[in-house]
Design a protein that fits this description.
The protein has 6 helices and 3 strands. The chain is mainly alpha-helical. Strands 1-3-2 form a 3-stranded antiparallel β-sheet. It is elongated and about 65 Å long.
Amino acid sequence: MEKDEKMCCEKQEVHEDLLRIVNETMPEETELYDLAELFKVFGDSTRIRILFVLFEAEVCVCDLAAVLNMTQSAISHQLRILKQNKLVKSRREGKSIFYSLADEHVRTVIAQGREHIEEG
């Protein structure tokens, strides 16, 4: 975008047909809020790093702490947020708890995000 390019219309005109389509398809405010909250979770580089590890393998907190060079406590805190937002799931095996991506949607969001930034 040019430095002096204006971000507004030269002529004030409302396109009623377009507004009607938008108003008919716009999600409820609560859904938009929930979506914004979900994307906030992706706004933390530590959580993104955890998701990238889980993109490759199911791991326990010890493994995550080692590979990301962080404390287990810090990892656990971030995993709790990811789990509350249904981005990761866990399963117990003996005394260990293993974490993985919750579903294919999480994998898709990460893959498409990478694709988007690599286009640039």
